[in-house]
Amino acid sequence: MTTLNSVTGPIDSKDLGFTLMHEHVMVSAPNMFRTFPDLFGPEDRVQRAIDTFKRAKEAGVDSIVDATTYDLGKDPQLLKEVAEGSGVNIINTTGWWLDVPRFLRGVSPNQMAREFIRDVEEGFRGTDIKAGILKCAADFQGVTPELELMTRAVSRAHNETGLPIMVHSYPTGQVARRQIAIFKEEGVDLTRVKIDHSNDTTDTEYLKWILDQGCYLGLDRYPGSLVSPEMRTFTMKRLIDDGYGDRLCPAHDCICLHIHKERPDGTMPEEHEFLRSNVDQYLYIHRHVIPDLQEMGSSQEEIDRLFVDNPKNFFEG
User: What gap in Å lies between CA 161 and CA 277, rounded to an integer?
Assistant: First the structure.
């Protein structure tokens, strides 16, 4: 057993249960949810999120990892309210996504590492809510100098705290090759690294290369857009059949609360655009992916490994 930081306090890794390893309760920009709340739809915003996760809990989702960093608008108090109101364990992250402002030019990896470590050991500023996982990112531009700085900062925070790392990556450009090279230079334990959005490709040769480095794969974009949902599940089943089922973590990368954008005629949609692309929200996997895996011949033991054992083992190291 390992004690994890959830947004409601410490929990044992054995209590994670069925876990979705890359989701979002809310995404925006720093402090936007509190500053311009009406952009996020009807006034019952927090209750809408609680009700959404209550439905997920009732269907069997016990825990999620919320991948929302500061630059994605992280709101620790919102996460705590949703966790308490729904009964779903929420583990939040510190680190950085893609939006590195010019004001941070010239800071060192060690400076940022110290800030991330404080989020883990003391809590997000103004709260006692502590981070339970680290995050860094790179996308189609590759690992830019600014993102390399954050990757090295997260690596050093990992070395200091022992927390695992989730990595936003871009499989079409095989960006994880460079990200993993940096982790190796920084002395990161690659068995504590999860390369996310990996089901945006069907290139199993590349995915197996990542797995052979010791990393986990986040197959966490469902239903997704670049690859059909069916091919995402087919690729996952191929990896399971090839012996890699113990390091795969499926999820949705779903967003509950986001900005509602006015239509050209001046009317407001009831839901934001991301919800319209996944009406099942955090239950898409239960309703579609698990039945498809079963139809392809996956046993209940294999399915439990994906959603129960693998998250637990990833956190326990």
Answer: 37
pLDDT tens digits, 288-303: 999 999 999 999 999 9
Half-sphere exposure of 80 (CA within 13 A, CB side): 15
Please tell me whether the peptide bond between 101 and the residue prior to it is cis, using omega within 30 degrees of 0. no
Contact (CB, 8 A) for 288 and 255 = no
Percent of the chain with pLDDT over 70: 100
Query: E-assigned strands of the chain?
Result: 3-6, 9-12, 19-26, 63-66, 89-95, 133-137, 165-168, 193-196, 216-219, 248-250, 255-257
Tokens at residue 177, please?
Answer: 């090759």
Is the pTM above the cut of 0.90? yes
- Which residue type, as a one-letter code, is found at position 308? V
- Sequence-distant (6+) residues with CB within 8 A of 8 are 80, 83, 84, 89, 90
- Strand 9-12 vs strand 19-26: parallel, antiparallel, or unpaired? unpaired
pLDDT digits (tens, 9 = 90+) for 124-161: 999 999 999 999 999 999 999 999 999 999 999 999 99
Query: Which strand (E) or helix (H) includes residue 295?
Result: helix 290-295
- Per-residue tokens: 203: 């290139």
Residue holding tokens 């390091």?
247
- The answer to whether 177 and 142 have CB atoms below 8 angstroms apart is no
109-121 vs 145-161: helix crossing angle, rounded to 10: 40
DSSP 231-246: HHHHHHHHHIIIIIGG
Determine the 3-state secondary structure of 291 from DSSP.
helix
